[in-house]
Design brief:
The complex is a heterodimer of chains A (114) and B (116). Chain A is mainly beta and 114 residues long. Chain A is built from no helices and 11 strands. The radius of gyration of chain A is 14 Å and the shape is globular. In chain B, 39% of the residues are buried. Classes of the chains: A mainly beta (114), B mainly beta (116).
């Protein structure tokens, strides 16, 4: 079964600092990987997706993620944090085959301080 | 705005009751997915419908059922409600039925269910 593990349920960074949110996946076949963001009282918004076209994926709001097969990782980064980045971030893997349900990690809450 | 509409936004009910959550997918999307988000279980896939047919089933309780209608809107029915069913229920929609670069799931804002 495919799964993702997000290390760190809470991450706190200063405004302007590097953001690094960690995600490791487990899959017996090449996965599709996603990062979603959830702002308070809102639904999930897609930040970026990896679908085997390129290992470095650029998303919205200055975020990017790199697929590293050797490390089974798909960490999310942003060079400079903004206060507006404070939210919960979910890594997810899509099951291969005919169904496309998403399996989510437990989420990482990002806090941005002045 | 994702284009996925969920109603109602909030629902408060009592144990033992039955409720119906509604989802309208984005225009042109044929797949609808239901997810449950709770503090103890996190975000869990419940069920997927594609063009009116059940496509995949996840951790959905027997007390829960869903359907997708000819106009592609979907309803999630929760019955014999228990305190533990209190959660945020999300609907998502996508164009296709399987995996693929273009089959992105777009999420609604969710229905917050409180069972008292």
């Amino acid at each position: 079964a495919q799964s993702v593990t997000q290390l760190g349920s809470h991450v706190s960074v200063s405004e302007g600092a590097l953001v690094l949110l960690r995600c490791n996946y487990s899959s017996s076949v090449p996965p599709y990987l996603f990062w979603y963001v959830q702002y308070p009282n809102q639904g999930l918004q897609l930040l970026l997706k990896y679908t085997s076209a390129a290992t470095l994926v650029k998303g919205i709001n200055g975020f990017e993620a790199e697929f590293k097969k050797s490390e089974t990782s798909f960490h999310l980064t942003k060079p400079s944090a903004h206060m507006s980045d404070a939210a919960e971030y979910f890594c997810a893997v899509s099951h291969t085959g005919t169904a496309s349900k998403l399996t989510f990690g437990t989420g990482t809450r990002l806090q941005v301080t002045l | 705005d994702s284009g996925v509409t969920q109603t109602p936004k909030h629902l408060i009910t009592a144990t033992g009751q039955r409720v119906t959550l509604r989802c309208s997918p984005r225009s042109g999307d044929l797949s609808v997915y239901w997810y449950q988000q709770s503090l103890d279980q996190g975000l869990q896939f419940l069920i997927q419908y594609y063009n009116g047919e059940e496509r995949a089933k996840g951790n959905i309780l027997e007390r829960f059922s869903a359907q997708q209608f000819p106009d592609l809107h979907s309803e999630l029915n929760l019955s014999s409600l228990e305190l533990g069913d209190s959660a945020l229920y999300f609907c998502a929609s996508s164009v296709g039925r399987g995996t693929g670069a273009k089959n992105i799931q777009y999420f609604g804002a969710g229905t917050r269910l409180s069972v008292l």
